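dude i think i finally got it to work??
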Amino acid sequence: RNSMEKVWSWYDVMNVHDYIKVYEDTVDKNLCDALMVADLDWKSSSFSSHEKVHEDSEDRVIMDDVWIHKDNNFYNPLKDCFIKAIRQYEYEFPLFLCEHTTDFRINRYSQGGFMSRHIDNIHHSHGQKWGYPHVSALLYLNDDYSGGEFVVADKEIKPKKGSSIIFPSNFMYPHEAKTVTKGIRWSVVAWLM
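look at this
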């Protein structure tokens, strides 16, 4: 059989959860620790729709975030981590190809923080415009908190420190971060096109 027949044969038997992948040891623990103590310009996160940014969005999200752009010293180490996860995903799904990533956003959820159920079928994020993402990718910087479970397509995941999650960004993959009940939950997100 040729390679395309092989691809279609596994595609026929896969379900939605098969496209949600967790990869351990994606982020070096020292990088995790350095990001959590870095002096960065944190802002209270807002919820954005295609029409506008909703500044008063505490019913949708409570967290602080900061963007890591190319001029930040953490950019290249984070890019290497995302590339490591992307290569694993590409290996498992040969039809997936990542040609571009957004900049990286660090999410910090303190006790009481959460992000409500949503999808990432976005064409922009905080002024960045490149097109619709194929997949969403998260790096987890810690696991020493309570609550804060990540739920994607009704599958609950509590990732380990240094791990990553990748999943499609479309309507079939609604996801949320449950309320943190103790400690601080740290993650880094990027959207891949």
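Residues 152 and 183 are 22 Å apart (CA to CA).
im so relieved honestly
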